[in-house]
Write a structure and sequence with these properties.
single chain; alpha+beta; Translation Initiation Factor IF3; 3 helices; 4 strands; 36% strand; globular
């Protein structure tokens, strides 16, 4: 992953707290990424199903637990990382 990557942040913790499914919001954000951009997702749990979905769509990820109910996942396009 390039150090000069542009980061697009999306925090879905409030959506999930309100019992709103953020899947479409996440996928719309992924589709809108330009070359050289990565998505930094904030979630209240480790989003294992999403990791699998985006892996199949050509995205690698970096996962970090910040606090007990705060995970950060950076998704970036595969094939040499960000372009």
């Amino acid at each position: 992953m390039s150090e000069q990557a542009a980061i697009v942040e999306l925090d879905v913790r409030e959506d999930l707290k309100l019992k709103n499914d953020p899947f479409h919001k996440i996928m719309d954000t992924i589709k809108s990424l330009k070359d050289g951009e990565a998505l930094l997702l904030h979630a209240p749990f480790k989003p294992i199903p999403l990791l699998k979905v985006l892996d199949k769509k050509g995205f690698d990820h970096h996962l970090e637990q910040v606090e007990p109910k705060h995970w950060q996942v950076t998704f970036y396009k595969r094939d040499g990382g960000l372009q």
